[in-house]
Amino acid sequence: MLKRNIPLLIVLFTALLLIVAFFIPHKPFGDLESRFLNWYAIISGFTFLLGLDSLTRHHLLKVIRKEKGWFYSLLLVLSLFATLGLGLYSWVRFASPFALRAPFMWLYKYMIIPLQATMFATLAFFIFSAAYRAFRIRNLGASLLLIAACLVMLGNVPLGSSIWQGISQFIHLIFPKTDPDALKRVELFALIKDWLMAIPQAAAGRGIGIGLALGGIAMSLRIILGIERTYLSS
Amino acid sequence: MNFWERISAIDRRILYLLLALVVLLPLIVKPKISVRVSEPVRNAFNAVESLPENSVVMISIDFDPSSAPEVQPMLIAILRHCFKRNLKVILTGQLALGLPIGEIALNQVAPEYGKVYGKDYVNIGYRPGFTAMMVGIGREIRDFFKTDYRGVPLDSFEFMRRVHNYHDIDLLVSLAHGAVADAWIMYAGARFNQKIIVGCTGVNAPGMFQYYSAHQIEGIIGGLQGASEYEALVERPGAATLGMPAQSTAHALLIILLILGNLGFIIARRRGRK
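YS: structure for the whole thing
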């Protein structure tokens, strides 16, 4: 009983204090908010230790039990501690791990950056293939999405501008009275892209954003009032 | 399987190969292209351009190496712009893994303009708990950053002595690949009226337009295209401008394949009905 109710009371009390501190940013509440924020930053820092512990434990167990893929787990643990070791050495030797001559930065520049960039670049291939398969004009909605996607892609790169130059010359050939330079300046694909981004896309984004915020508020209220208690389970 | 059915179901390995070719070729040939500057990027540029000399710009590295090919050119272009205009730069970051990228960029750009660490720019590093920090800077930056990333007290740097909170920061630049930019807008922008510009990956850029059209941010630099536009504005073409032809050809290939794939899909469906 106490094990459940005391944490709930702490949550309620802290939340109420924070709400009051937000609306009354004067002493003693203003100081209180700052203090809470410092605690939050400290606790956030400690979550890294928890993460480190959990990650190491999980992968070391995999290595000890020789589970499937144990070799990758071993690599992960070795890399983790090598990075940590180099970071600490660089800190002691160069006053900061980010010093450009530090071994940590060597590891960062020649291992971490290329590896992460490669992972991200590989995604482009999957997205490319997925887009090719998914963008089928099965119905009106899918067709509109496809057209919008193509227009955004054309409006987003200089190629769209070059294509529009060609189209404007073609229009001038058919309608000689039109001013070709004025037509070129219109940059229709870019204009359509800007409109799509600023109006329909932003409208949809706002809807999603408002929904997310309302969901966040509802969840916060549930936690403050003790209705949502899943965070109490170990 | 006839021609159109084959076209509508090209093997993914062929797609990968085609994409690799159309990306590689422009990177090797390096064709020159002209860049059209969009309004959100021009406004971002103008936000920096309109600052008087010695104004303080805080740049937050909210991306890591995975997004560096898109966002790092923005950082370099903005640093060049700031140093060219004699603005003071404070570098920070909300992703521990991203901060060294900022340090690399600073060390690349600062010598180009003869800028000195501590006098013209500082790197205050990273602190965990970014939302707390964003709100906390509204009160006093030293509550979270007493020293720079090397442990040197902030007050040792002359221009930092006058920087206490958002009132003393003339512009905030969030270079982000995730939700950190949203947090800056919510906690620094909405609560403390901090002027913000956002540079982000192409994927994140659409999500920023709602803030931009509501005038909650001054400008957006979106993706490689946005970076190349900023490079064009600062008249120093760099990695983004170099990458634009490759991005153009990749987009063109995808559009061609989409048209062909859909043609195949429609024809195959009609034949199926008959």
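YS: worth flagging: The CA atoms of residues 38 and 44 of chain A lie 10 Å apart.
IM: good catch. Also The radius of gyration of chain A is 28 Å.
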